């Protein structure tokens, strides 16, 4: 049954069936072959897959992000980034990184961040001679940081499935996210210096103060979200509700860039994006149930016990598997499919589920900028109007740095666990 389940999933994915329907189809095929499980198990499990209070945070954070983008948040954060780092060689490359750090506190979605900042920055980068491939690569690499610095949709999904505190996962991603951003800026600087990219004039102190004042309300949102979660005032799901209300107030009454007539369009965008994620989440429930029925997790655990000689080897093997999966599967699907299988392995080898949750999120985000199925990659390509080959030539230095940092985070758990242990004992 297990072999039929896995093979049917791979075949359906290879022939181009969407991930959600591939998960449902493979579950159905395995049940029909087994002929002992009633077919009504599939709709029952589909309903149970979405019956989760923490999952409500996903559409709410997406809505908050779309509303804040329409409310003028993005342009103010980009302007602030430009006055802060525009004087460094390769100005717009650094602006791309810093803008995505700021945007990460808004939506929790790397794809949304890439679309929002990319539409403003990539055309300008191309006009200033950065090249389409490089513009798409640095934007894509920068957007991977979005779901690592809180809030984070991948961490919400993992935390819900693994029973790990979503608030602690959010806090645990802060230091790794900032390290990733800093490293991307360092790589960008050396590339810019080698290629002779532009260097803008340093902004005056008065300009910096003015930019901070203009972006103050945008910068306050992640402070409210993260501060409220780790202080215990509200849960991650409740913080998403607050984020929506806050974004509406700022967009309509403070910045006044958001118009009432635009709200139906933004709600429709949220529904479209949330439904694509929701289908995968719902479809993964019967798949995971059939996988457990076929004793998939136990068999994978037995395989790891035979191969892995230590915790470090087990962690490195898990990362390698996840990186390979990231080249072919959507990140949400990877988290949902692998979490039930991986949890027994974490317990067997003494790996902290909180630590691994952040590592998993970074893994799947790296997968979003790797061919052939990188979601952020395709967003950047569509804006830059360049080919996968051009993108691949430019992305590899950033990819190597991100993978190197991933190994460091995996081998030094304290980088992830320090802030959660300090702030949320």
UniProtKB/TrEMBL annotation:
Domain (TRAP C4-dicarboxylate transport system permease DctM subunit) ranges: 6-415
Any Pfam family hit: DctM
Keywords: Cell inner membrane, Cell membrane, Membrane, Transmembrane, Transmembrane helix
Spans through the membrane: 46-68, 134-157, 169-192, 215-234, 240-258, 270-292, 312-342, 354-383, 395-419
Protein's UniProt keywords contain Cell inner membrane: yes
Coiled-coil residue spans: none
Localization terms from the record: Cell inner membrane
InterPro entries: DctM (IPR010656), TRAP_DctM (IPR004681)
Coarse class of the protein's main subcellular location: membrane
Topology of this chain in the membrane: Multi-pass membrane protein
Family annotation (PANTHER family): SIALIC ACID TRAP TRANSPORTER PERMEASE PROTEIN SIAT-RELATED (PTHR33362)
NCBIfam families, sorted: dctM
Protein name stated in the entry: TRAP transporter large permease
